[in-house]
Amino acid sequence: MVPTTASRHNHAQIAHDIVFFLAADDETAAATSLRGPGEAFESVTCRFIEPDSVIAEWDMYFEEPSAEAPPVEQLLGWAWPEWVTAPLNDGVEVFALPQRLTRALANASSAELEELAGRWTTRVRSEDGDDMTDDDLLAVLQGVARLAASAVDTGGGLYSWSS
After folding, report:
1. Residue 142 confidence (pLDDT) above 50
2. Helices (H) and strands (E) in the chain, counts
């Protein structure tokens, strides 16, 4: 049984390490669940974010662009990413980014990425305050957009692994 978005969010723990990576398919991505993607996969790493809510927020931005962060209720009602591997007791999760989000990121302009990064930073800061990630969220987003472009070019998929 897949938990509802609300129950997922209420039980979500902030992941310590998040790796967005390219893989040929879901099976290949699922095989990373034990050790992480490692150097065999093209990837972008960041820390201390919730990958499923970030993926949902990015997807929402490209479907309904706005410089303002959406209300939490709207975000919780959005279509959240699918698990490639359901979380085990070790907390490791592997998500597939939706194809439409992968295409949107691949085709995003610099201005769109900057606006989305600003909106994302505002939301993270309002939720986490001083405990906010020290990653450069625009750089993370630009890196993921480069991965998305490669995924579109190769016919592969874009995934996130977190522990």
Report:
1. yes
2. 7, 5
Q: Beta 82-85 vs 43-49: how paired, if at all?
A: unpaired
Block residue for tokens 């630009």: 142
| Token pair in block for residue 116 | 């989305």
pLDDT, tens digit (0-9, with 9 covering 90-100), for 39-98: 999 999 998 788 888 999 999 999 988 878 888 888 888 888 999 988 877 788 999 999
Alpha carbon distance 43, 123 (integer Å):
24
Q: Read off the pLDDT band of 9 (50, 70, 90).
A: very low
Is the separation of the CB atoms in 123 and 58 below 8 Å? Answer: no
* Three-state DSSP class for residue 23: strand
Gap between the Cα atoms of 24 and 149, Å rounded: 14
> Both ends of the chain: CA-CA distance in Å?
21
List alpha helices for the chain, DSSP H. Answer: 5-11, 26-30, 51-63, 72-76, 99-107, 110-128, 137-154
